[in-house]
Amino acid sequence: MTARPLIGVGVVVLKTTAHGPQVLLIKRGRPPREGQWSLPGGRQELGETVRETAIREVREEAGVEIADLRLIDVVDSITADPAAPAGPPLYHYTLVDFAARWTAGEPRPGDDAIDACWADPADLDGFALWEETVRVITAACKPALP
Question: What pLDDT, on a 0 to 100 scale, did the predictor assign at position 144?
Fold first, then answer.
């Protein structure tokens, strides 16, 4: 645990198919949210821009290349310590969430992901996503303002 929030980056990777848009999801292999479906992303490294982090993390976690990053939102993910709920949080990430266009590659788990797949944004219930993740995906699927 650190004494301050960590910066994380998440990416809603969208792929246009004949059946409509698909969103890239990964299943986390490490805490926080180990074993849960989520967006690809991770911690920003020292000297790296958030956009560089987005591109690197999607490549490392899912083997996919992206372009046209668009900022969606900034979200705080604060996880209480179950052993000391009134104490300092176990995890506190400030998450910078982007939308991006898929350009190449097929999903394959890598880095700290144990699974990766394309999913229909209208059919996310089976993935038991965090409510903020669903909200960010929904926002990313809306057309950008001119």
Answer: 60
| Tokens linked to 99 | 């939308």
User: Is 15 a residue whose pLDDT tops 90?
Assistant: yes
Provide the whole-model pTM: 0.89
Question: What are the E-state strand segments in 39-89?
Answer: 41-43, 65-79
Q: Domain boundaries in the chain?
A: 6-141
Round to whole Å and give the CA distance between 15 and 120.
10
Nearest to 79 by CA among 68, 87, 71: 87
Q: Which CATH superfamily is domain 6-141 in?
A: Nucleoside Triphosphate Pyrophosphohydrolase (3.90.79.10)
| Cα–Cα dist 8/10, whole Å | 7
* 145: confidence class by pLDDT, cuts 50, 70, 90: low
Distance CA 49, CA 60 (A): 16
Whole-angstrom distance, CA of residue 26 vs CA of residue 101? 16
Residues 6 or more apart whose CB falls under 8 angstroms from that of 70 comprise 98, 99, 100, 140, 144
